[in-house]
Write a structure and sequence with these properties.
The protein has about 450 residues and is α/β, with parallel strands linked by helices. The chain contains ten helices and 21 strands. The strands form two sheets. Strands 3, 4, 6, 7, 9, 11, 13, 15, 17, 19 and 20 form an eleven-stranded mixed β-sheet that branches. A ten-stranded mixed β-sheet has the order 2-1-5-8-10-12-14-16-18-21, with helices on one face. It is globular and about 70 Å long.
Length: about 450
C-alpha cells in the first residue's frame, strides 16, 4: 500500500511541474484527468476490477518511472531498422512520446492533414478541441485518466470528406534505451465522410530498459468513411505497455484493424468499437509470447444500430512460462436487428507452462441476428506432423513451418504489401526453436 501511494505522489510531482497548456479548455481537461486518476488509481485491487482479473498491474503501480529525457535522439538508421519504413509513406516519429521533426518524413497530400498534437494544441486547433477525450472517458479508467492528465504530444490525422489518401500514414512511437520513464502518447484520427485512408501505429523499443508506454487513441469515422488501421507492438522485453483505443463508426463506415504484438514484459490493449447502421468491422490480431511475457487483449464490440457486420479473429502463439489473456465481448443492443457478428480466438501452446485465459462472450438484446463465438487452445496433432515428415522434412523444419503457417493466416490478411512483407520476416524471426514430439 505504501509503495502504491508513493508512486502516486511521484505522478503528483510530475503533474505539478507540467507547464501550462496555454489553453483554458486543455488545462481543464488535464485537471479533470488528474482528478480522476487520483480517485481511480491503478486497477490493482481484486475486487471491483473484473476487466483486469487475469492481469496484475501491481508492477506498474510500484515502478519508479520518471519523465523521459527530452534530448534523447536515436539515429535515423536505428529507427528505420526497428520499425516498418517506406520512404513514400507519411511518417511521424515520436521519441519517448515527443515528436521528432528530424526523424519524420511528412509529404503533403490533398485532403489530409498529418500533424503532431503539440503543434495542433499550440494553435488551439478546432479538431483537437472538438474531439480530444470525446471517446476515451477519464471517469472509469485510471490509465486513460493519467494519459489525459499529461496530454501534450502525439499524432493528429484529419482526413477531409471524400478524400482518398493513397500514401499510408505511419505513426512511429520509439522508446530509447535510456532510463526508466513513462510516456503518454496520444493519437487522434478523424476520417471525414466517404473518405479512405490507411494508418499504421507502431510502438518499438530500442533497449532493454523498463519503461511504460501509456497510450490513448481515439478514432472517429464519419458516414461512409473507410479506415484501415494497423497496430504493431515490439517493445523492450522489460517494458510495460497499456493502450486504450476508442473507435466510433458512424452509419455506413468500414473499419479494418490488424494488431500484431510480439515484444513486451506486460502489455494490454483495451479496444472498444461503437458500430452504427450498415457498418462493417474487421478486427484481426496475432500475438506471440515467450519467457515470462504477458499480453492482454480486452476487446468490446458494440452494435448499437441494425444492419452491421463484425468479424473478430485473433491468434496467439505461446511458449515458455508466458501468459495471454483474450476477453472478447460483442454487445447487440435493442433494435440492432440484422446484426451479423462472429468472434474467434485460437491459441497454439508450445509449452506445458504457457497459459491462455480466453473469455469470448455475447450479450444480445435483439431478434433476427446471427452471432457466434469460439475459442481454442492446444498443440498441433500428430498426423499433421507425420504428413510433413513423410515428405522428407526434418522435425525442426516441419515444426517451424507449421508454427509459421498458423501465424501466416493473420499476416496474409494484411492488404498493404510492404507491411505484410515486414511482418512475415519479423514474426518468422520471433518463432521460438521448437520440435513437435508425441
Amino acid at each position: 500500500m505504501t509503495q502504491t501511494l508513493t508512486t502516486y505522489d511521484r505522478y503528483a510531482e510530475q503533474y505539478a511541474a507540467l507547464p501550462s497548456a496555454g489553453s483554458d479548455w486543455l488545462n481543464r481537461l488535464r485537471q479533470k484527468g488528474f482528478d480522476s486518476f487520483l480517485r481511480l488509481g491503478f486497477p490493482t485491487a481484486r475486487r471491483g476490477n473484473e476487466a483486469w482479473k487475469y492481469t496484475n498491474v501491481a508492477p506498474i503501480a510500484r515502478a519508479e518511472l520518471s519523465i523521459p529525457d527530452p534530448d534523447c535522439a536515436p539515429a535515423a538508421g536505428t529507427v528505420r531498422g526497428a520499425a516498418p519504413w517506406v520512404d513514400d509513406w507519411n511518417t511521424l516519429v515520436f521519441v519517448n512520446g515527443r515528436f521528432s521533426s528530424d526523424l519524420s518524413a511528412v509529404h503533403e497530400h490533398e485532403g489530409v492533414t498529418v500533424s503532431s498534437l503539440s503543434s495542433v494544441l499550440s494553435n488551439d486547433g478546432a479538431v483537437a478541441r472538438q474531439n480530444l477525450s470525446s471517446l476515451a472517458s477519464v471517469e472509469d479508467d485510471g490509465f486513460a485518466a493519467l494519459n489525459t492528465a499529461f496530454v501534450s504530444d502525439g499524432a493528429v490525422v484529419h482526413i477531409s470528406d471524400r478524400a482518398r489518401v493513397e500514401r499510408p500514414i505511419h505513426l512511429a512511437f520509439v522508446s530509447t534505451g535510456e532510463g526508466n520513464f513513462v510516456a503518454h502518447p496520444r493519437v487522434l484520427i478523424v476520417a471525414g465522410a466517404e473518405s479512405e485512408a490507411t494508418v499504421i501505429e507502431s510502438y518499438v523499443g530500442l533497449g532493454d530498459n523498463a519503461y511504460l508506454n501509456n497510450g490513448v487513441a481515439e478514432m472517429v469515422l464519419e458516414e461512409g468513411a473507410q479506415l484501415n488501421h494497423y497496430r504493431l507492438m515490439d517493445e523492450s522485453d522489460s517494458a510495460y505497455h497499456v493502450g486504450v483505443a476508442r473507435i466510433h463508426q458512424k452509419d455506413g463506415s468500414r473499419f479494418s484493424s490488424g494488431a500484431f504484438y510480439k515484444g513486451v514484459r506486460l502489455g494490454r490493449h483495451d479496444l472498444y468499437v461503437h458500430i452504427g447502421d450498415g457498418c462493417e468491422t474487421t478486427l484481426d490480431g496475432l500475438y506471440i509470447t515467450s519467457g515470462s511475457q504477458h499480453v492482454d487483449n480486452f476487446i468490446n464490440i458494440d452494435h448499437v444500430k441494425p444492419n452491421s457486420t463484425s468479424n473478430l479473429y485473433y491468434k496467439g502463439i505461446l511458449s515458455g512460462r508466458s501468459r495471454a489473456v483474450f476477453g472478447g465481448t460483442v454487445f447487440v443492443r435493442k433494435g440492432a436487428i440484422k446484426t451479423d457478428a462472429l468472434q474467434s480466438d485460437k491459441n497454439l501452446l508450445l509449452s506445458p507452462n504457457a497459459e491462455v485465459d480466453s473469455k469470448p462472450a455475447l450479450f444480445i438484446w435483439a431478434d433476427d441476428v446471427k452471432c457466434g463465438h469460439g475459442a481454442t487452445a492446444g498443440n498441433v496433432d500428430e498426423e499433421t506432423v507425420f504428413y510433413m515428415r513423410s515428405r522428407g522434412i526434418d522435425l525442426e523444419s516441419a515444426s517451424r513451418l507449421l508454427i509459421f503457417g498458423f501465424a501466416s493466416e493473420i499476416i496474409d490478411r494484411v492488404e498493404l504489401r510492404e507491411l505484410r512483407d515486414w511482418l512475415e520476416q519479423s514474426f518468422l524471426e520471433a518463432i521460438p526453436k521448437y520440435e513437435f514430439t508425441f
